Amino acid sequence: MTETAISSRDNPIFKRLRKLAESARARREVHMSLLDGEHLLAAYLEAGGQPHTLVRAASFDAGRLAPLAARCPHAKAIVLPDALFAELAPVATPTGILAEAAWLNPSARAVTPLVIVLEDIQDPGNLGAMLRTGAAAGATLAVLSKGCHDPWSPKALRGGQGAQFVLPLQQNIDLLAWLNGFSGTSVALALDEDSDFYALDLKGPLALVAGNEGAGLSEAVCGAATRCAHIPMAGRIESLNASAALAVAVFEAVRQRRD
Fold it and tell me: Quick one: 211 and 90 in the same domain?
């Protein structure tokens, strides 16, 4: 694959990539994002995606990229000085590889619905981890409120480790309207509820609702759910991290469905 060297911040390709790295609005307008690292690029290819552009830092070994580049026959390949590459990278220690890629739209599976519903999750790492948990559990859909962080941001993509490529997403959703229209059981995970989550029957069509890292779920969303329940904790700690709480809940549903 022939590479094009870019050394100026004024280059239009670099400007386009920087917009994708920095702006959720720019990503929404073109339905594209930047994938950081070999693992994420490989996951994108496994899901059937083909990147538009491959970006290599000058210090990254081109031979190491070659096996992945061979799977992207139509991608434009560019190489950047390390300093310019670092301006695009979402982490302090860049991986050396980025890919400009279109969002994927995975199809919903024809199985009993298992939906994760997320209200105002604002930390990109947390959001990515929650999507990764949902994908690992075989969730059929992720529904994100208008206040959630952009799931296609580079940091959320790193947290998801490929979840966004295989888990159908609905973004910027009015959760009250969505919950009112859901035909199955919706369970809001809330700390101050008496109902024991482990005592619930989770085998049918199910939506698990998790809230903001600090504030938890809003009163309105809790009220729109079929029921609210808490995850019992034996230790002396106030609460679980939002991502951990969702993981406990969704895999309890998986356990019951296996039985």
Answer: no
